[in-house]
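Practice problem: 2-oxoisovalerate dehydrogenase subunit alpha
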Amino acid sequence: MCFAYKTLVFPLLLFCIAVHQQQPFDSTLEKPQFPGASAEFVDHLEFIQPNVISGIPVYRVMDRQGNIINPSQDPQLSKETVLNFYQKMTLLNTMDRILYESQRQGRISFYMTNYGEEGTHIGSAAALDPNDLVFGQYREAGVLMYRGFPLDLFMAQCYANADDLGKGRQMPVHYGCKDLNFVTISSPLATQIPQAAGAAYAVKRENINRVVICYFGEGAASEGDAHAGFNFSATLECPLIFFCRNNGYAISTPTNEQYRGDGIAARGPGYGMLSIRVDGNDVFAVYNATKEARRRAVAENQPFLIEAMTYRIGHHSTSDDSSAYRSVDEVNYWDKQDHPISRLRHYMTARGWWSEDDERSWRKQSRKTVMEAFEKAERRLKPNPELLFTDVYNEMTPNISKQKEALWRHLQVYKEHYPLDLYDK
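Answer key — structure tokens:
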């Protein structure tokens, strides 16, 4: 048995040794085969630090005095186009001041200004095609204004009168316009983000030269809907531009209490999105970034994330007093030293396109135009009460018909308590 054992086992050992010598194995050369990520193996324990790389840079074209820094980045826009930028930005500013005071006087119930963020509105709107679909939050009035939404309809919406496209059903500043491809704004934060991803997927399937742009603030980016929208758009490869206005505050919460990472643009790579951070107070930088993102989104069917760094000079809304959580000096710095309107004005003045006389004349004219629309809106009647029951179904259901009849019976019995003469017949 010993002989037999040696005869069988010894050659087997020699074979194993030979195989081992002929096929050496180095574990350091192993490559991960996991389907979820591309990476390398390491043999030392190390957690990835959040600040392992320097912050994402901020792209800009103009300095604070309106000088072009790199001539190759100058969009070379015509005088007429630049003047239109400036006039839309200042007209928006004038409308804000009048409607803000209107709320303070009790004429309307609520308002939100756009002070300090005008460059993000106009720069991005100008880079889009009119056919592109816009999902706004509630501080994108300038985008709608640039597309041609008239002052009369801005006022009608805030006053909820008979001219309001929403028929008086929405809070002020919740604009919408089907003809201008601007989806009606809703109050809940970030609901528009996954909606935009779905719309962009539909646009992709249509295979047309069109993109969807979705605006939101850095506070809304903390909502779960934001992450769902980012992931859907990236995995479905949708032509979508996510445009984040990082204005420093989510209502009363500063950014250092909202997140610990490098802003919002840093989240893009984690979802597989191309991302950029721009100076939101530089209308040309916003224009260039949005224009290039749009071009590539259409050509490549993929989403882009733009983080526009800016500052909310006004209160969050008429329900907010920002002096409770930030200093007057801080606000004054951004208002006086780094404002998108003054920066563009420096640019125009240096080229001889704008003067003090032009400024005085335009300010007077724009205020007169806004006041005319304001006074007209105040004189208009409220929408007919019957509109409470329309537009939900194609044909009115029996239970809604009963509610409508009950309302009119009530109004007839107690009509002395209702100012029906203020409502459209």
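Discussion: Residues 79-104 form the longest helix (26 residues). Students who identified this feature from the tokens alone can consider the problem solved.
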